[in-house]
Amino acid sequence: MSIRFLGHFLQPQFTDNNSYSRFCLTNPHFIMTSFYTDAELKELGIKSYGKNVMISRKCCIYSPQSLSIGNNVRIDDFCILSGNISIGNYVHISAYCALHGSKGIEIRSHSGCSARTTIYSAIDDFSGDFLIGPMHPELLTNVQGGKVIIDEFAQIGANCVIFPNLTIGEGAAIGAMSLVRESVEPWTINVGIPSHIIKPRSKKCKDLVRELSSI
């Protein structure tokens, strides 16, 4: 077995499973991670970011100069972030999420996106009256959109699609595999294609924020 450096962590190179097992038994506190180190984050050119920011090295950030991140934010493997994006505090963007922020995306504090969710701030016209895709001249396309706001305490379930120019209200929850085409009322639980309200959502999570300072 050989060991090489990866950021500020050691990454062992094993020749077989037995070598790996022996290493784990003798090094119980060893941690392998794909997150950028603090030094590496500084080299990304992100517009601004706070404390305890964890971004996977496997995440693709195409416009770091337009990306603002607060404190205690985690962005997992294989996410795509492009355009003008603002992320608040205590936000988790799960694996394989795509945030297309050409018209702006704002994800406010204590909210998040579950795995494989896609947020569009602009979309093509599929009517057949225009050409589609960025390789065609803009004159022949009809891209429309507007800013998407995910308000505080809102949560988007796995495999959802969020359309442009809408607000997911404070504390709203979107069930897995839903399509959100219009703004969502605060403190409601929504599911479906297109999404619709099924019941109110508890506000207890909002009260729990007061306990953060004591943890």
What do you see in this structure?
- Helix content is 9%, strand content 34%.
- It has 215 residues and is mostly beta strands.
- It folds into two domains: 1-33, no CATH class; 35-214, Hexapeptide repeat proteins (UDP N-Acetylglucosamine Acyltransferase, domain 1).
- The longest helix is centred in the first third of the chain and has 10 residues, at 17-26.
- The model is unreliable at 1-12 (pLDDT under 50).
In brief:
With 215 residues, the chain is mainly β. Helix content is 9%, strand content 34%.
CATH H level, superfamily name of the largest domain: Hexapeptide repeat proteins
For the CA atoms, what is the radius of gyration?
A: 20 Å
- Name the shape in a single word: globular
The largest β sheet comes out as:
9 strands, parallel
Low-confidence stretches: 1-12
User: Helicity range of the residues?
Assistant: under 10%
Write the layout of secondary structure elements.
Elements: E1 2-6, E2 9-13, H1 17-26, H2 38-42, E3 53-55, E4 60-61, E5 67-69, E6 73-75, E7 80-87, E8 91-93, E9 98-107, E10 112-113, E11 118-120, E12 122-123, E13 144-145, E14 148-150, E15 155-156, E16 161-162, E17 166-168, E18 173-174, E19 179-180, E20 188-191, E21 196-200, H3 204-208
Parallel strand pairs: 3-6, 4-7, 5-7, 6-8, 7-9, 8-10, 9-11, 9-14, 10-15, 11-16, 14-17, 15-18, 16-19, 18-20
Antiparallel strand pairs: 1-2, 12-13, 20-21
